[in-house]
Write a structure and sequence with these properties.
Blueprint: E1 9-12, H1 16-27, E2 32-36, E3 59-62, H2 69-79, H3 83-90, E4 92-93, E5 98-101, H4 103-116, E6 120-124, E7 138-140, H5 148-158, E8 163-169, E9 172-174, E10 184-185, E11 201-206, H6 208-220, H7 241-247, E12 274-280, E13 287-290, H8 299-306, E14 317-319, E15 322-329, H9 331-334, E16 347-349, H10 359-377, H11 390-401, H12 443-471
Parallel strand pairs: 1-2, 1-7, 2-6, 7-16
Antiparallel strand pairs: 3-5, 4-5, 8-15, 9-13, 9-14, 10-11, 11-12, 12-13
Bound molecules: flavin-adenine dinucleotide (FAD).
Flavin-adenine dinucleotide (FAD) binds next to helix 1, strand 2 and helix 10.
């Protein structure tokens, strides 16, 4: 008796995410049609028609799976037989602790693997609308430079404010690096609001001299070239802080740094001249974002300037601020945990368009979307990666871990994010023990041990998750 082969799953976009998703689906014995427009239509940044082309740096960042979150993600992807990691490892060039690749060799390897896979068909065409009805399962992985026709169709399906075309990002700080002997929790005028407590913000006080020095540093800070996306518009209420500082020395004190309605819990009789506020950024409470501090200062300049803020002198940044051309959807609202668009069963999103950032993160979300789609096609129940793994932590950020703020109606607060330890659930209380032989066990040592334990837990839990998939 002849058995019919499964219906193919369609993937739009043959970048980092789409190529990885196609590979993962084919590994499950399911055919894929991969639609890539390059070769027919170019993007503003790609230079070739190779699959998984790296548009800028040739680095996959740290390969340290013991104390770096992206290194942990590398290791989990290797555990999951990632095509992107296999091609990267085969094309590695020397780069210290980082995994850097020969960009042409890497893209050629991905293209060769995909083209040699009998279950994958690559078609070179631009898809200009949402997948037609007869594609019962599809993945959109068209990245930060999604072609305008498809972007318009996504916007029509999801709503006008659900798709962003650039990101104006305020820096995000690891909560445990904020000095609470200087800062205090309080909402302006102690307002409780719909979902708050009256103590929802961390406040950093500045006196007049500190404020003056901070404004000087912002104005003098290295803005760098902004050639790439010079046409990027500034929106009202979203001006970079250094632009505000240049408009007038008091502008910030009447804007995001206004001290009104706040009383310094450590020094109630002295009114702060200015206050920097940070708001909880993820459900775990491990990350706080600097409210209104979107910036296009160069990365190298940002940490030094922001550490001038009292209470942030030792701040560790989960991400620095930025202003980039980027197309991404409001995933926490639009997608379910399996990356499926809630309004269209069978349609998944993957890669940077979901609100992760970076080559490795995009590929890893492609890997998950591919596995979820294959499980659905095979009628298997969906087993999600544990939140304690890097896969799970990133998926959680995209599909639910982010806190949507109630106090800025109309503003979307979900911002793209690289993987970082702040996205992982904290370790069990009391589980961090002083290593034998260590005399003093202080903040920095503790942070190192905490990262190592988080990384070990992630790799162990990821391996168990993958084993459970193999058993189904
Ligand atoms: C200018 C720039 C510089 C960057 N620099 C870095 C960096 O240095 N390091 C880093 O980690 N990340 C960088 N990024 C982010 C980077 O783009 C992502 O990390 C990664 O490429 C995203 O993978 P993806 O698969 O989601 O998208 P992509 O890799 O961009 O793949 C999307 C694919 O979809 C195709 N496509 C788009 N629309 C359609 C359509 N309608 N029909 C068919 N095909 C379509 C595109 O041609 C492309 O091949 C940069 C982004 C930009 C825009």
């Amino acid at each position: 008796m002849k058995t019919s082969s499964p219906t193919p799953i369609h993937i739009i976009g043959g970048g980092l995410a789409g190529s990885e998703a196609a590979w993962q689906i084919a590994r499950q014995g399911i055919p894929v049609i991969l639609h890539e427009m390059r070769g027919v239509r170019e993007t503003e940044a790609h230079k070739t028609d190779g699959l998984a082309e790296l548009v800028c740096s040739n680095s996959f960042r740290s390969d340290d799976a013991i104390s770096n979150a992206v290194g942990v993600l590398h290791a989990e992807m290797r555990q999951a037989n990632s095509l992107i990691m296999m091609a990267a490892d085969k094309n590695q060039v020397p780069a210290g602790g980082a995994l850097a690749v020969d960009r042409d060799g890497f893209s050629q390897a991905v293209t060769a693997f995909i083209e040699a896979e009998p279950l994958i068909t690559v078609t070179r065409e631009e898809i200009t609308g949402l997948p037609p009805e007869d594609w019962d399962q599809a993945i959109i992985a068209t990245g930060p430079l999604t072609a305008p026709g498809l972007a318009a169709a996504i916007q029509a399906e999801t709503g006008s404010d659900a798709l962003a075309f650039f990101d104006a990002i305020a820096p995000i700080v690891h909560t445990d690096s904020i000095d609470m002997d200087i800062c205090w929790f309080q909402s302006r005028y102690d307002k409780v609001g719909p979902g708050g407590t009256g103590k929802d913000y961390i406040n950093c006080p500045m006196d007049e001299a500190q404020y003056g020095a901070f404004i000087d540093a912002l104005i003098a800070g290295d803005k760098g070239g902004f050639k790439e996306w010079e046409g990027t518009p500034y929106f009202d209420g979203c001006l970079p802080i250094e632009v505000m500082a240049e408009r007038g020395r008091e502008t910030l004190r009447h804007g995001p740094m206004k001290p009104m309605g706040l009383t310094n819990a450590h020094n109630p009789t002295v009114k702060a001249y200015a206050v920097v506020q940070l708001r909880q950024d993820n459900a775990l409470g491990t990350l706080y974002n600097m409210v209104g501090f979107q910036t296009k200062l160069k990365y190298g300049a940002q940490a030094g300037i922001f550490r001038m803020i009292p209470g942030l002198q030792n701040a560790e940044f989960a991400r620095l601020g930025g202003l980039h051309r980027n197309t991404y959807i409001n995933s926490p609202i639009l997608l379910d945990r399996s990356l499926t668009l809630k309004s269209r069963p069978g349609l998944r999103f993957a890669g940077q368009i979901t609100g992760c950032e970076g080559y490795v993160e995009s590929a890893s979300i492609g890997l998950l979307a591919g596995r979820f789609a294959a499980a659905e096609r095979k009628g298997e129940s969906l087993i999600l990666p544990p939140d304690t793994s890097a896969f799970g932590a990133l998926l959680n950020h995209i599909t639910g871990g982010h806190i949507v703020s109630d106090d800025e109606p109309g503003k979307r607060s979900f911002q793209p994010m690289n993987i970082n330890f702040g996205l992982f659930p904290p370790l069990e209380p009391g589980s961090i023990q002083k290593p034998e032989g260590m005399k003093r066990f202080r903040g920095k040592d503790k942070t190192v041990i905490k990262k190592q334990m988080t990384a070990e837990r992630a790799l162990r839990d990821c391996a168990a998750w993958l084993e459970s998939l193999d058993r189904t």
